[in-house]
Write a structure and sequence with these properties.
By secondary structure, this protein is of the alpha+beta class. It is built from 17 helices and 14 strands. The N terminus is likely disordered.
Length: 523
Amino acid sequence: MNIYTAPDPSPVERIDAEPVNARGKREPLYAARKKVFPKRAEGRFRRFKWIVMMITLGIYYLAPWIRWDRGPYAPDQAILVDLASRRFFFFFIEIWPQEFYYVAGLLVMAGFGLFLVTSAVGRAWCGYACPQTVWVDLFLVVERAIEGDRNARMKLDAGPWTFDKARKRVVKHAIWLMIGVATGGAWIFYFADAPTLLVSLFTAKAPVVAYATVATLTATTYVLGGLMREQVCTYMCPWPRIQGAMLDENSLVVTYNDWRGEARSRHSKKILAAGQSVGDCVDCNACVAVCPMGIDIRDGQQMECITCALCIDACDGVMDKVGKPRGLIAYATLSEYAANMAIATDDGRTPVQPTKVRNADGSFVEAIRHFDWRIIFRPRVLFYAVTWLLIGVAMVVHLAMRERLELNVVHDRNPQYVLESDGSIRNGYTLRILNMVPAPRRIELSLLGLDDGASMRIPELAKQDARTFIIEAAPDVATTVKVFVTSKQSTAAISEFLFAIEDSGHSDRATYRAAFNTPGDAK
């Protein structure tokens, strides 16, 4: 019988890396932080993380500076939360306070988006796009550039304080603080005109709240991204505990395939010569050394794992060196892993037997399951995707069809009506005409209903009564007018009529049903 003999893994250096929370030493609730010195990783997932980091940081820092021409009556900042006028601008979209349901819709979409990503590819959000992950990556770039890679940083940390060590630490923390300041500064630019606020900041003319916000975000960015790092994901973030409910046996997660990795050995030729089984894992600890959370993925799925896949890159590099196929650590599903483990262990009756999963030439037996991308498109994932898409489509359709003209009416409470000398009755109203277009508009106000002799009077526009008036509505604000409605029918009970406003140039129209009080109401 031919036995597959793997090349001796002697070219691979064993890294002295111990996980911060190993399986046999796990703390029940909280453990004091043990410093993690992640080694630089190289590979396709690391390159993907660089791309995501550049895109997300680019959007965050540059978005407030994008201009968008809305005309002379509206701000030209593309993305702006205008607290003074209580509006939110996003390119061609303008959201008013009474349209907060759009923001609620975006939050619901974000929730379903997280459900969708988690059910399909596990904690990909945590591993690639979470702000904590992105800023920690950025801080690590600075740390490596100043103090060196893993071994150099560990040696520096353990060594005595010297001028060189103090200089490196001061420079590193100063750059971290500068990143924190830039983070807080970028955030406040979303709430005011960015160029104007930038000048105000440097001339000490900005509001106190702006400086307080920058200081707060500087401190949180520096502490969370530089000093606490993995502790934030382990103890402060609720997502690791919630996401378990959204995973199933077909969700992709970073997995150590011990069905092909065990038994571990750095001397496979000697082990095989002795007639013992040996797996593909050469016990080099490269996966532990590159992990930003400081865990050992070989201990199985752990709450601390953010599925950044850097351990996959590290392991693939080792497998390339020793001439073994990649994928010892890989994205895999629980169902795929369980099926392969059943083959390697005779349905759990024996320890892992490498000869059960390989042919004589070293290839995997036909029964071994490999990742099939079609498993992502299962009912649960499709449900989340369709729900997310329907919410988005509904919001877009509603945005396209919404009216940009609104009317609110408040009836005078005291007096509720006035009986005039000729027997007619007058009611007073305050109208708020909301022009949600960044341009002045000529709005036609009409009185619909009541008797034919009923009329309106707007003292600030004209002294004569009429059933129709033209009102100049200011751009992007609510125009308030006082309106008196007079009716000749003095004995009628309470009546209802309509105020109607219309801008024929924009095809916008709004109505409000109002009550007309008379002495007959008290009968």
